[in-house]
Amino acid sequence: MEPYLYVGNNPIMFTDPTGMNHHDYGVNKETGEINLIRETNDKFDRIMETDEDGNIKTYGTGFLIPKAKKGQEKIAVDNIAKGILKDCMNFEIKDINIKVNREGEPTLKEFDNFISKFSDFVKKEIAGVRLGNLLNNSEVTSVQTFRYLYNTRDKSSIPERWMTDYGLRLKGHFHTHPFNDHVPSTEDIALKNRFKDVPFFYNF
After folding, report:
1. Burial class (CB in 10 A: 0-12, 13-18, 19+), 21
2. What phi and psi, each to the nearest 5 degrees, are found at residue 151?
């Protein structure tokens, strides 16, 4: 069985007509693509640690590994709210828009929690913008991330036109700090100074 086929290569036994089942995903480290591995009974989605063939890694039997973990599958990112991840999505090379804060959608806080942990996992800053509607000055209805292909652990970017083209829909700019171990870069400070009316979020 191929490890990255939808519903575990068994569409009769594993179907998801309502989209309410929870899933385990793997990340192809060469392409950045996130692939569905299987459905689970867990309360949240997860990203599992996988090898180059897409097989889920497990804890070995070394002396330093706690007995309770030996043989268990390795989880890279846990407690991911439903509605953030989809099969074949790719934050590394694509701009991703995720709806938040409405019924059946993850909250903004749940997205922030995911993108922070995911940033730690890929060891790169990830940046984007928070968007809303024209009639509400504070409500965020979606989050747009910019591809992180050329980012580093302490530097990221978004197209500067995003700071103007979205107009009143723009509710804020954000970027992560992998492992919370650095301060805003000179590029971050310059962007913040150029767009002083746009809220700036980082290090969450």
Report:
1. middle
2. -75, 165
Find how far residue 113's CA is from the centre of its chain. 9
What type of residue sits at position 176?
T
Give the containing element (helix H, strand E) for 46.
strand 45-48
Q: What's the pTM?
A: 0.85
**Under DSSP, is residue 56 helix (H, G, I), strand (E, B) or coil?**
strand
Helical residues (DSSP H) of 13-138, grouped into ranges:
108-122
Q: What angle do CA 160, 162, 167 make, to 5 degrees?
A: 125
C-alpha span between 202 and 158 (Å, rounded): 14
**List of E strands, the chain:** 22-27, 34-40, 45-48, 75-80, 96-99, 127-131, 142-145, 170-175, 200-202
Per-residue pLDDT tens listing for the chain (204 residues): 344 444 444 444 444 444 458 999 999 989 999 999 999 988 999 999 999 888 999 988 767 767 767 788 999 999 999 999 999 999 999 999 999 999 999 999 999 999 999 999 999 999 999 999 987 778 999 999 999 999 999 999 999 999 999 999 999 999 999 998 887 778 888 888 899 989 999 866
Token readout for 162 is: 């995003």
